Amino acid sequence: MAVxxxxxxxxxxxxxxxxxGLPWGLTVTPFASKDETGIGPAYGxxxxxxxxxxxxxxxxxTYCELDQWAWTCSLCGTLNGLPSDAIARYSYPHDSIPEMSxxxxxxxxxxxxxxxxxTQARPVYVAAIDLSSSEEFLELTKSALLxxxxxxxxxxxxxxxxxxxxxxxYDVQGPIPVVKNVFIPPDAESKLPLELEDAMPLLQxxxxxxxxKDRIAAALETLRPITSWERSSGAAQGIDGVLMGGRGxxxxxEALFNYLGSEFGNTFALARVFAFISGPPDYGRGxxxxxxxxxxxxxxxxxxxxxxxxEQTPFYKDLATIAVQSGVCVDLFAVTNExxxxxxxxxxxxxxxxxxxxxxxxxxxxxxxDMFRMLNRPYAFNCVLRLRTxxxxxxxxxxxxxxxxxxxxxxxxxxxxxSYATYAYDFDFANNTGFSRHSREPPVVxxxxxxxxxxxxxxxxxxxxxxxxRGKHLLQRRLRIxxxxxxxxxxxxxxxxxxxxxxxxxxxxxxxxxxxxxDGVREGRxxxxxxxxxxxxxxxxAYNLVQYKNGNKSxxxxxxxxxxQCPQLxxxxxxxxxxxxxxxxxxxxxxxxxxxxxxxxxxxxxxxPSSLHCGIYPSLxxxxxxxxxxxxxxxxxxxxxxxxxxxxxxxxxYTTLIVFYTSAADPSLPFPPPQDCLLRKxxxxxxxxxxxxxxxxxxxxxxxDATAFENYLIEEQDVDGSGFASARGFVSFLxxxxxxxxxxxx
Length: 746
Ligand SMILES: [Zn+2]
Fold this sequence. Notes:
Bound molecules: zinc ion
Distance between the termini: 45 Å
Number of helices: 26
Shape: globular
Helix content: 25-40%
Radius of gyration: 28 Å
Strand content: 15-25%
Number of domains: 3
Structural class: alpha+beta
CATH architecture of the largest domain: 3-Layer(aba) Sandwich
């Protein structure tokens, strides 16, 4: 569990918080195996007998004062009696007891009754493939699924389904694959005429991976796109013989969830559905009207971004709820450059704990690699995340892909989460008092994360298991707790010096995504601009940098817009500028596809702060040869490139990696860089540590089209994309901000 706060020294009260102009909060990556400094938890068992505070329910931790019979809660100060079993335990040498030796513990919990019965639950995976598609799409999907089959552990069950104007279910357990079809009614109201269970019993559909791998592959080979002839002979004929489309995603998903739901809690604890789509659902339930895209595009007078960001129907949000109730998590893979309205579809994946992937073409798609990567890493499910604070402050908002608990405040449910998934909170003071200036009690945050993992047979170390259970998957429930103490800042300089700019960026990104969803991209941009103006004003005020004189016209020239007195704040204007230049916040008129914007919103709202930094302001490293690094960091400006004189650059924009050879590069330098060189080693390291597979490009200036690389050199671009690219981009942005700051300070 990695936790990073916007400031490591907390403001003393709400006046100090306001005066700082900074967001106050933290990011948490609960399933990360290490903390933010690379240290793992103390492991143990019996999480259920860990003492809890009778007042605030916080867990006992290393910051609590312990007497022989009692302990004082480090969050609320309540004196609690020690249970007799704990008295005995805590009298042993402390390093053998996890909660006594570390403030970061990971403890096994006994399974509750219903889980007990299904400790042998098997992982279940279902692929649902769009046949209202192309040969290329199916080829790509096949190779992704073949990669997936290699990644699935023995004992997993796999089901293959297709959808178009009908749902196809494959039985691969017999000698030859058999497909059963159920036709989907074309209109948006009718349900399926037949339950899938009646077409094929679920346990016939779900095949053991280890024995059926070859037959699953054989069945995949038989997949063909449906032809228009097939469609018109099916139920897809509308009035006057007009073709009504044939992508019945909504009905197919609804039917699959109900189908799988019958074995939830019996055969499986979590089933994952991979839905592959090549365009918008246009048939049956949940069909989407994609003409709204054309209309917006035609008339530029409407705020297109505002019109295209909200969902057009609650259908997929409701469907996600059914998925969750059926124990299903949905990963959505959209391979299309057609407007697909991911704004409506996204809920299906993010609310069910899955991921959303968008590939604009089948040619350069990293879908198979993404699939393999996703299945190869551990995930936790059925998770509950709870953040507690000491009494002086409280969590205000929470951000990320989770469900709030209907009953308890500040309790979040996460259906499924991997080691990358990151969430954010911001804080507010509980009252006007704030932290007492002279108190010995520092602010404390405690994050508890309860989760279930499937332990594959080879991962079991417990030899006490009955032999009948050996070689089977087991469920394990665990409780991970991190308790952190912070300091308070005695003055504003101490706050500024303790800023973590990457975490500040994370909170800003969450906020602007929310604002742009509600009020449009224009509002999101305005919020960000205003935030930087206020921060700059507060900082200049705090350092007394501006002399107020009557009639002083050059006030803006005195303003320190670069935060030269405070290295921790220095990166922020650049980050804000880059965020404004990011497709996340660029205008529709600049050619940002609405589906791509939604994809970025979903991706950016789960990234941990350093990855997000890379996505917003890519890192640029120069090399003098493929084996020798020149400078570790360049600003994203053409001028910086030219003055550095290096022949090779490596740009990491999180989703894209670009190796760029300048036209001045010695022709004897090998291109592309050879496999065993330092640059390749660094590229591979970057790829390894990433949640998605970045696209890798090699570009030679003067020989290849360099647009992809040049687009990332944002500092010479105009911030709002309205004017021509000029050498004044970032510079004139700063001028503009300092004007606004001068206005604001007056
Ligand atoms: Zn307490």
